[in-house]
Amino acid sequence: MSPSPGGGSGHRGMHERVKKARKLKVSSQRWLARQLNDPYVARSKQEGYRSRAAYKLMEIDERYHLLKKGMRVVDLGAAPGGWLQVAAKKVGSTDADIRVVGIDYLGVDPLAGVTVLEKDFLDEDSPAALDAALGGHRANIVLSDMAAPTTGHKATDHLRIIGLCEVAVEFARSVLVPGGHFLCKVFRGGAENALLADLKRDFARVHHVKPPASRPDSSELYLLAMDFRGRRTPVQRDDEE
Protein backbone atom coordinates (compact mmCIF):
# COMPACT_ATOMS: atom_id res chain seq x y z
CA MET A 1 0.00 0.00 0.00
CA SER A 2 1.38 3.42 -0.93
CA PRO A 3 1.83 5.94 1.84
CA SER A 4 -0.91 8.47 2.40
CA PRO A 5 -0.32 12.20 1.76
CA GLY A 6 1.93 13.84 4.31
CA GLY A 7 4.02 10.69 4.84
CA GLY A 8 1.45 8.88 7.00
CA SER A 9 0.43 5.28 6.53
CA GLY A 10 -2.87 3.48 6.11
CA HIS A 11 -2.46 2.36 9.71
CA ARG A 12 -2.47 5.98 10.82
CA GLY A 13 -5.79 6.56 9.03
CA MET A 14 -7.26 3.56 10.79
CA HIS A 15 -5.89 4.84 14.12
CA GLU A 16 -7.51 8.22 13.60
CA ARG A 17 -10.87 6.63 12.81
CA VAL A 18 -10.71 4.41 15.89
CA LYS A 19 -9.63 7.37 18.02
CA LYS A 20 -12.61 9.42 16.82
CA ALA A 21 -14.89 6.44 17.39
CA ARG A 22 -14.20 6.59 21.13
CA LYS A 23 -16.47 9.62 21.28
CA LEU A 24 -19.39 7.63 19.85
CA LYS A 25 -21.99 5.59 21.69
CA VAL A 26 -21.04 1.97 22.34
CA SER A 27 -23.52 0.71 19.73
CA SER A 28 -22.06 3.09 17.14
CA GLN A 29 -18.52 1.99 18.02
CA ARG A 30 -19.52 -1.63 17.45
CA TRP A 31 -21.06 -0.76 14.08
CA LEU A 32 -17.95 1.16 12.99
CA ALA A 33 -15.62 -1.65 14.07
CA ARG A 34 -17.72 -4.15 12.15
CA GLN A 35 -17.65 -1.97 9.02
CA LEU A 36 -13.89 -1.48 9.20
CA ASN A 37 -13.31 -5.23 9.50
CA ASP A 38 -15.96 -6.38 7.01
CA PRO A 39 -14.36 -7.89 3.86
CA TYR A 40 -17.56 -7.25 1.87
CA VAL A 41 -17.41 -3.54 2.67
CA ALA A 42 -13.81 -3.40 1.47
CA ARG A 43 -14.64 -5.43 -1.63
CA SER A 44 -17.60 -3.20 -2.54
CA LYS A 45 -15.32 -0.14 -2.43
CA GLN A 46 -12.69 -1.85 -4.58
CA GLU A 47 -15.17 -3.12 -7.16
CA GLY A 48 -17.34 0.00 -7.34
CA TYR A 49 -20.56 -1.30 -5.82
CA ARG A 50 -22.62 1.12 -3.77
CA SER A 51 -23.20 -1.27 -0.89
CA ARG A 52 -22.10 -4.63 0.49
CA ALA A 53 -25.69 -5.78 -0.13
CA ALA A 54 -24.79 -6.16 -3.81
CA TYR A 55 -22.98 -9.38 -2.92
CA LYS A 56 -26.09 -10.84 -1.28
CA LEU A 57 -27.95 -10.60 -4.58
CA MET A 58 -24.93 -11.89 -6.52
CA GLU A 59 -24.60 -14.92 -4.24
CA ILE A 60 -28.31 -15.72 -4.41
CA ASP A 61 -28.20 -15.38 -8.20
CA GLU A 62 -25.14 -17.63 -8.46
CA ARG A 63 -27.05 -20.34 -6.62
CA TYR A 64 -30.49 -20.02 -8.23
CA HIS A 65 -29.73 -18.37 -11.62
CA LEU A 66 -32.48 -15.78 -11.34
CA LEU A 67 -31.19 -12.93 -13.50
CA LYS A 68 -30.82 -13.49 -17.25
CA LYS A 69 -30.20 -11.27 -20.27
CA GLY A 70 -33.29 -9.43 -21.45
CA MET A 71 -35.27 -9.74 -18.21
CA ARG A 72 -37.24 -6.86 -16.73
CA VAL A 73 -36.54 -6.19 -13.07
CA VAL A 74 -38.25 -4.16 -10.35
CA ASP A 75 -36.26 -3.34 -7.19
CA LEU A 76 -38.26 -2.14 -4.16
CA GLY A 77 -36.29 -0.21 -1.55
CA ALA A 78 -33.47 0.34 -4.02
CA ALA A 79 -31.21 2.86 -2.21
CA PRO A 80 -28.28 3.22 -2.37
CA GLY A 81 -28.36 1.17 -5.58
CA GLY A 82 -26.19 -1.92 -5.10
CA TRP A 83 -28.91 -4.31 -6.25
CA LEU A 84 -29.72 -2.06 -9.20
CA GLN A 85 -26.08 -2.23 -10.31
CA VAL A 86 -26.06 -6.02 -10.17
CA ALA A 87 -29.43 -6.37 -11.92
CA ALA A 88 -28.60 -3.93 -14.73
CA LYS A 89 -25.33 -5.73 -15.48
CA LYS A 90 -26.91 -9.19 -15.39
CA VAL A 91 -29.90 -8.43 -17.63
CA GLY A 92 -28.02 -6.11 -20.00
CA SER A 93 -30.08 -3.00 -19.27
CA THR A 94 -28.91 0.15 -21.11
CA ASP A 95 -30.09 3.73 -21.46
CA ALA A 96 -31.36 2.80 -24.92
CA ASP A 97 -33.28 -0.18 -23.59
CA ILE A 98 -34.03 0.23 -19.87
CA ARG A 99 -35.08 -3.00 -18.20
CA VAL A 100 -34.48 -2.18 -14.53
CA VAL A 101 -36.77 0.01 -12.43
CA GLY A 102 -36.14 0.90 -8.79
CA ILE A 103 -38.05 2.84 -6.16
CA ASP A 104 -37.00 4.38 -2.83
CA TYR A 105 -38.05 7.49 -0.93
CA LEU A 106 -34.38 8.14 -0.07
CA GLY A 107 -33.47 8.65 -3.69
CA VAL A 108 -30.68 7.01 -5.68
CA ASP A 109 -27.86 8.64 -7.64
CA PRO A 110 -28.31 8.04 -11.40
CA LEU A 111 -27.22 4.71 -12.85
CA ALA A 112 -26.85 3.73 -16.51
CA GLY A 113 -29.68 1.55 -17.75
CA VAL A 114 -31.86 2.17 -14.69
CA THR A 115 -35.02 4.18 -14.02
CA VAL A 116 -35.40 5.22 -10.39
CA LEU A 117 -38.57 6.64 -8.81
CA GLU A 118 -37.96 8.75 -5.72
CA LYS A 119 -41.11 7.70 -3.89
CA ASP A 120 -42.25 5.74 -0.89
CA PHE A 121 -43.37 2.33 -2.13
CA LEU A 122 -46.25 2.45 0.35
CA ASP A 123 -47.71 5.56 -1.32
CA GLU A 124 -51.04 4.78 -2.94
CA ASP A 125 -49.87 5.74 -6.43
CA SER A 126 -46.49 3.95 -6.30
CA PRO A 127 -47.59 0.62 -7.85
CA ALA A 128 -49.13 2.50 -10.80
CA ALA A 129 -45.96 4.61 -11.17
CA LEU A 130 -43.80 1.48 -11.25
CA ASP A 131 -46.15 -0.13 -13.74
CA ALA A 132 -45.87 2.94 -15.99
CA ALA A 133 -42.05 2.91 -15.67
CA LEU A 134 -42.10 -0.64 -17.04
CA GLY A 135 -43.61 0.78 -20.23
CA GLY A 136 -46.58 -1.54 -20.28
CA HIS A 137 -44.42 -4.64 -19.89
CA ARG A 138 -44.63 -7.15 -17.09
CA ALA A 139 -41.65 -7.89 -14.86
CA ASN A 140 -39.68 -11.12 -14.83
CA ILE A 141 -38.52 -10.61 -11.27
CA VAL A 142 -39.44 -8.38 -8.32
CA LEU A 143 -36.74 -7.76 -5.72
CA SER A 144 -37.32 -6.29 -2.28
CA ASP A 145 -34.55 -5.41 0.13
CA MET A 146 -36.87 -3.03 2.00
CA ALA A 147 -36.61 -2.71 5.77
CA ALA A 148 -38.91 -0.75 8.06
CA PRO A 149 -37.37 1.70 10.56
CA THR A 150 -36.49 -0.27 13.69
CA THR A 151 -37.98 0.38 17.12
CA GLY A 152 -35.59 -1.78 19.13
CA HIS A 153 -38.43 -4.15 20.02
CA LYS A 154 -37.70 -7.37 18.11
CA ALA A 155 -41.29 -8.63 17.87
CA THR A 156 -42.55 -5.27 16.60
CA ASP A 157 -39.69 -4.89 14.11
CA HIS A 158 -40.30 -8.42 12.84
CA LEU A 159 -43.99 -7.75 12.20
CA ARG A 160 -43.18 -4.46 10.49
CA ILE A 161 -40.90 -6.03 7.91
CA ILE A 162 -43.32 -8.91 7.35
CA GLY A 163 -45.99 -6.30 6.66
CA LEU A 164 -43.72 -4.66 4.08
CA CYS A 165 -43.06 -8.01 2.47
CA GLU A 166 -46.79 -8.78 2.28
CA VAL A 167 -47.39 -5.52 0.38
CA ALA A 168 -44.46 -6.37 -1.92
CA VAL A 169 -45.97 -9.80 -2.60
CA GLU A 170 -49.27 -8.25 -3.65
CA PHE A 171 -47.40 -5.92 -6.01
CA ALA A 172 -45.39 -8.82 -7.43
CA ARG A 173 -48.58 -10.76 -8.14
CA SER A 174 -49.88 -7.80 -10.14
CA VAL A 175 -46.82 -7.28 -12.37
CA LEU A 176 -45.00 -10.62 -12.74
CA VAL A 177 -45.12 -12.69 -15.90
CA PRO A 178 -45.99 -16.38 -15.47
CA GLY A 179 -42.73 -18.09 -14.57
CA GLY A 180 -41.41 -14.94 -12.85
CA HIS A 181 -39.62 -14.76 -9.49
CA PHE A 182 -39.90 -12.80 -6.24
CA LEU A 183 -37.14 -12.19 -3.67
CA CYS A 184 -37.84 -10.43 -0.38
CA LYS A 185 -35.88 -9.71 2.81
CA VAL A 186 -37.40 -10.82 6.11
CA PHE A 187 -36.16 -11.45 9.64
CA ARG A 188 -36.61 -14.62 11.66
CA GLY A 189 -39.38 -14.39 14.20
CA GLY A 190 -42.13 -16.82 13.27
CA ALA A 191 -44.52 -14.69 11.22
CA GLU A 192 -42.50 -15.33 8.07
CA ASN A 193 -43.84 -18.91 8.03
CA ALA A 194 -47.38 -17.71 7.21
CA LEU A 195 -45.96 -15.61 4.38
CA LEU A 196 -44.05 -18.65 3.12
CA ALA A 197 -47.26 -20.68 3.03
CA ASP A 198 -49.03 -17.88 1.15
CA LEU A 199 -46.29 -17.74 -1.48
CA LYS A 200 -46.51 -21.50 -2.04
CA ARG A 201 -50.02 -21.05 -3.43
CA ASP A 202 -48.78 -18.91 -6.32
CA PHE A 203 -45.20 -20.04 -6.92
CA ALA A 204 -43.93 -23.49 -7.83
CA ARG A 205 -40.88 -23.31 -5.54
CA VAL A 206 -40.29 -21.31 -2.36
CA HIS A 207 -37.04 -21.21 -0.38
CA HIS A 208 -35.51 -19.63 2.72
CA VAL A 209 -32.11 -18.25 1.68
CA LYS A 210 -29.28 -16.81 3.77
CA PRO A 211 -26.42 -15.83 1.46
CA PRO A 212 -22.83 -15.80 2.81
CA ALA A 213 -22.75 -11.99 2.60
CA SER A 214 -25.58 -11.79 5.14
CA ARG A 215 -23.85 -11.42 8.50
CA PRO A 216 -23.97 -14.67 10.54
CA ASP A 217 -25.10 -12.88 13.70
CA SER A 218 -28.04 -11.23 11.89
CA SER A 219 -31.57 -12.69 11.91
CA GLU A 220 -31.90 -11.48 8.32
CA LEU A 221 -32.81 -13.98 5.63
CA TYR A 222 -34.56 -13.91 2.28
CA LEU A 223 -37.72 -15.54 0.96
CA LEU A 224 -37.28 -16.63 -2.64
CA ALA A 225 -40.38 -17.59 -4.61
CA MET A 226 -39.75 -19.00 -8.08
CA ASP A 227 -41.87 -19.78 -11.14
CA PHE A 228 -44.98 -17.68 -10.64
CA ARG A 229 -48.10 -19.59 -11.69
CA GLY A 230 -49.97 -16.47 -12.76
CA ARG A 231 -52.59 -14.29 -11.18
CA ARG A 232 -55.48 -16.14 -9.64
CA THR A 233 -58.99 -15.39 -10.87
CA PRO A 234 -61.46 -15.06 -7.98
CA VAL A 235 -63.99 -17.89 -7.87
CA GLN A 236 -67.43 -16.55 -8.78
CA ARG A 237 -70.27 -17.69 -6.56
CA ASP A 238 -73.60 -18.76 -8.03
CA ASP A 239 -75.41 -15.81 -6.41
CA GLU A 240 -73.04 -13.36 -8.14
CA GLU A 241 -74.00 -14.40 -11.66
What features would you describe in this structure?
With 241 residues, this protein is α/β, with parallel strands linked by helices. The protein folds into 2 domains: 9-43, no CATH class; 50-228, Vaccinia Virus protein VP39 (Rossmann fold, 3-Layer(aba) Sandwich), CATH 3.40.50. The chain contains 8 helices and 7 strands, in the order H-H-H-H-E-H-E-E-H-E-H-E-H-E-E. It has helices at 10-21, 26-36, 39-47, 54-64, 82-91, 126-133, 154-175, 192-202; strands spanning 73-76, 100-103, 114-117, 139-144, 176-187, 203-209, 220-228. The chain has a 7-stranded mixed β-sheet, with helices on both faces. Strand 1, helix 5 and strand 2 (100-103) form a beta-alpha-beta unit. Helix 4 (54-64) runs parallel beside helix 5 (82-91) and helix 7 runs parallel beside helix 8 (192-202). The longest helix has 22 residues, at 154-175. The protein is globular, with a radius of gyration of 20 Å. The termini are far apart. Its main location: cytoplasm. Specifically methylates the uridine in position 2552 of 23S rRNA at the 2'-O position of the ribose in the fully assembled 50S ribosomal subunit. This is Ribosomal RNA large subunit methyltransferase E. Belongs to the class I-like SAM-binding methyltransferase superfamily. RNA methyltransferase RlmE family. It is found in: Cytoplasm.
